[in-house]
Write a structure and sequence with these properties.
- The chain is α/β, with parallel strands linked by helices.
- It has three domains: about 130 residues, Response regulator (Rossmann fold), CATH 3.40.50.2300; about 140 residues, Beta-Lactamase (2-Layer Sandwich), CATH 3.30.450.40; about 180 residues, 2-Layer Sandwich (Heat Shock Protein 90).
- The protein is about 50% helix and about 20% strand.
- The protein has 13 helices and 18 strands.
- The strands form four sheets. It has a six-stranded antiparallel beta sheet, sandwiched between helices. A five-stranded parallel beta sheet has the order 2-1-3-4-5, sandwiched between helices.
- Strand 4, helix 4 and strand 5 form a beta-alpha-beta unit.
- It is elongated, with a radius of gyration of 55 Å.
Length: about 575
């Protein structure tokens, strides 16, 4: 009876061979022995031992020959070389021929032998288990690979169907009319599920309203809620789950028929259309399948289509709601625009009434100074009225064309000045810009004051001259300039301390639009101001009622005329402000 692993020891020295056999048998190994390599090879072929102990130096057939034979014919049998030569070359050669381990004689402690044997057998066991495990894994991999191939084929088929569904239903998102949506989605369902009949209902105001049908005469236009007890529609509405019926006439079916006689068979599918908070917002039914009855696969494909349908339906309903809201807003906006135009028109008319009343009162003023003051007030009101008039006439009632507005102010000022057009020329070159009413009126009054001041004071003898009104951009700043070539400013002129009402208005309004003003003297001087909006105006002599300034100005003019020489003349006032280009 075999006790354990079978070990063959090939040793020409009988004492050593006997000690190996006795010791290993005591360790429950089944032992075989041979006195030389020839007998050992015969035992190997006949008994197929689990491990071989072989001496390297033996007569007839040595251990290296045995090693070569075993490694060639039985590579899985471990061989431990045993030699007493102690030559390292023998160790290297034995390992080269396939020895698993090497033991030197004499073996003083046979436990060393036992350790080497167990280690070699353990390695064999592990190698065998690894090989068997690898073979099992390879077999499982083959099985799984075959399964994956089958699954991949199925997935490719499903993917193809999904692509077709996505391709055919993607245009549903672009449908913006609910009545078109129902027919379109039913055609998609019928094409993918091979059905020729069906209808689609949406829940509205306590009723189910039909928004599409594949077979006319099948679906009533309205179904009153709650639906008839036992009807398929009511079951789907209450459960919120698809319903597939393979044969309505089957005895196990407890649902009632609708009474429609156009069914080609008794199989149908009904899908709930989910809305907000997973509530059923409608139903879609299909019947008359080309090859009845409907199957579970039809139900799964239909459920996928229903998901697309639900998203498309929400988009369509949202678009219709948006259109209704947009129409409402447009009506409201049109009404407000008409109202605002009427307000601007009435404001302009009221200002014209004020101007007319001031003109009627004008003859009552006896002095030229008083009449001049009333004329200036009329001109200032006209500048404000002009803004409301342009807002009334323009398409965009929130902004005014700055260039057109200033040209209108220039026209009003020029019309009231007799010398302009003959001896004095006024030119305008303003960039295109649009600004709101809250800024256009302060800007207009500033420009009006600057032009009026130049025409009144820069040319006392009315012997000829020129006033330029210019506008341009510098980065985000809008700059307007009123420039003249008149007699210039008196040396004592100080913008901050002048008591003139005109310049007081200019400073106050410039500050209102967050601007600042700076005065330079000479032919090309400019007056600068910076703020959120900007206007630059250049004038000749400053408006002033101060006798000293007027005397200095007259003296400068007389000196220039008497000597035939001209000092730097003209003056410029500039207002700058940040202006968004539009």
């Amino acid at each position: 009876m075999r006790r354990g692993s079978r070990i063959l020891t090939i040793e020409d020295e009988a004492a050593i061979r006997s000690s190996f056999v006795s010791f290993l048998e005591d360790c429950d190994f089944d032992m075989l022995e041979a006195e030389n390599g020839k007998i050992g090879i015969e035992l190997i072929d006949r008994e197929l031992p689990d491990l071989i102990l072989v001496d390297l130096r033996m007569p007839e057939v040595d251990g290296l020959t045995v090693l070569d034979y075993v490694s060639t014919n039985y590579p899985d049998i471990p061989v431990i070389a045993v030699s007493g030569t102690g030559n390292i070359n023998d160790v290297i050669e034995a390992l080269h021929y396939g020895a698993w381990d090497y033991i030197l004689k004499p073996v003083e402690d046979l436990n060393i032998l036992l350790y080497a044997v167990k280690r070699a057998l353990e390695k064999v066991r592990l190698d065998r288990e690894n090989r068997e495990h690898r073979e099992r894994l390879e077999e499982e991999v083959e099985i799984k690979t075959a399964q994956l191939k089958e699954a991949n084929i199925r997935l490719q088929s499903i993917n193809h169907k999904l692509k077709e569904i996505v391709k055919s239903t993607s245009k549903l998102i672009s449908i913006n009319r609910l009545d078109h949506f129902g027919t379109e989605i039913l055609e998609h369902f019928g094409r993918h599920l091979s059905a020729t009949g069906g209808s689609m209902y949406l829940k509205q105001n306590g009723e189910l309203i039909c928004i599409g049908s594949l077979d006319r005469g099948h679906a009533p236009q309205k179904l009153t809620l709650p639906l008839r007890e036992g009807s398929p529609f009511r079951r789907v509405m209450e459960s919120g789950k698809p319903l597939i019926v393979r044969d309505l006439l089957n005895g196990s079916c407890t649902m009632s028929r609708s009474g429609y006689d156009g069914y080609q068979d008794n199989s149908f599918l009904i899908f709930p259309i989910p809305g907000a908070e997973d509530r059923v917002t409608g139903l879609l039914s299909l019947h008359n399948k080309t090859l009845p009855p409907f199957t579970e696969e039809d139900q799964e494909i239909g459920a996928l289509l229903t998901a697309f349908c639900s998203e498309g339906l929400r988009a369509t309903m949202a678009f219709e709601a948006l259109l209704r809201h947009e129409k409402k807003l447009k009506r409201s906006l049109t009404e407000k625009e008409l109202l605002l135009r009427e307000v601007h028109h009435r404001v302009k008319n009221n200002m014209q009434i004020i101007i007319s009343m001031m003109n009627l009162q004008r003859p009552d003023y006896k002095s030229d100074h008083d009449r001049k003051l009333i004329d200036k007030s009329i001109h200032r009101i006209q500048a404000m009225a002009l803004a409301h008039e342009q807002l009334y006439k323009t398409e965009d009632i929130s902004q005014i064309n700055l260039s057109e507005y200033i040209k209108g102010i220039v026209h009003e000022v020029v019309r009231g000045t007799a010398a302009v057009g003959t001896d004095i020329q006024v030119n305008t070159a303003i960039m295109e810009a649009y600004i709101g009413l809250e800024l256009i009126i302060p800007v207009g009054i500033i420009i009006h004051e600057l032009i009026d001041n130049a025409l009144e004071h820069a040319f006392p003898d009315r012997s000829g001259g020129r006033v330029d009104v210019e506008g341009h951009y510098e980065g985000e700043k809008c700059i307007l300039t009123v420039r003249d070539n008149g007699i210039g400013l008196p040396d004592s002129f100080d913008l901050e301390s002048t008591g003139s009402l005109g310049f007081l208005l200019i400073k106050t309004l410039a500050a209102q639009i967050k601007g600042s003003i700076e005065v330079d003297r000479g032919a090309d001087t400019k007056m600068n101001g910076e703020g959120e909006r900007g206007v630059s105006g250049a004038l000749g002599a400053a408006e002033t009622a101060e006798a000293k300034g007027a005397a200095e100005t007259a003296a400068k003019a007389a000196k220039a005329e008497a000597t035939g020489t001209a000092e730097a003349q003209g003056a410029a006032f500039t207002l700058e402000f940040v202006c968004l280009h539009s």
